[in-house]
């Protein structure tokens, strides 16, 4: 449903592009537009505008209006999606304070520099658009109504993940050098890292924190081993309630993907040098840069979690390891058990790509055979 696509081929210094608004089918009250401009220093600036054209107030999850929080732009070069170098977080399911409220007629406008977080380093024809999806995108009440409808009409449900997207802006770029220090092929522990038996620590981890991490890593190994054994003892023809709860109906292809993902997570725990950083002071559980294996940044919610159980320290490690491109390359389509269960019903193909779905399968609480 892209309403406008304009092409610019003026080299690296492409002129600013304005495009018409786009109404998402799942929330016609929100109109989204993206403008793109390139600066003389090579920066590529995208300006996002979200307008409430409805009569009532509208909500949107704030994470999806911040490039430092989420992968909110879809960018392709010559038809192939480029790499995103930003962080992937594990969060709690959103609460009311996580939503931005737009009054009738109000516009949210924000600008983002793209070349620091997207690979724009090669010449080519680029297409840039705002493109996000989440069960909770427009508010918890919308999600609960969708879940109620799914329980009543499961056979007719194909997808209930809310989506919001914009026009597509097309332009030619000669290539913009990668400009942020966090864009690396891998995250090396570095000289300041303190390592114990292949596990390294950065960010001034205390002795207590190190002990907690090592214990949680052992627990993560246990629940991952259990997951691998469970998947090996079942099949797409006999997936069981545990599989169906978190990944939905099984096909040979989807089951093989989940099985391969857990084998890769298990290999990362058993055979790779992992680095844990204790410097994060955000409210989240943890985050990683998917192109920088195998470094995990632990945040406040991690230290407040139990070692095992729902949203545990062990599960957080499984969640974050699954994000690495060299492991499973998962995304954060939904957060929380309720959202993960709904995703399994409505869209199993997305459930097998969702990091929390892998975590909850591994944690297996409440216990299921």
From TrEMBL:
Residues 229-363 form the Lysine-specific metallo-endopeptidase domain. It holds the Pfam family Aspzincin_M35. Its cofactor is Zn(2+). SUPFAM superfamilies: Metalloproteases ('zincins'), catalytic domain (SSF55486). GO terms for biological process: proteolysis. The keyword Transmembrane helix does not apply. Keywords: Hydrolase, Metal-binding, Metalloprotease, Protease, Signal, Zinc. Residues 1-25 form the signal peptide. The keyword Protease applies. GO terms for molecular function: metal ion binding; metalloendopeptidase activity. It comes from the Bacteria. InterPro entries: Fungal_M35_metalloproteases, Lys_MEP, M35_peptidyl-Lys, MetalloPept_cat_dom_sf. Belongs to the peptidase M35 family. This is Peptidyl-Lys metalloendopeptidase. It comes from Pseudoalteromonas peptidolytica F12-50-A1.
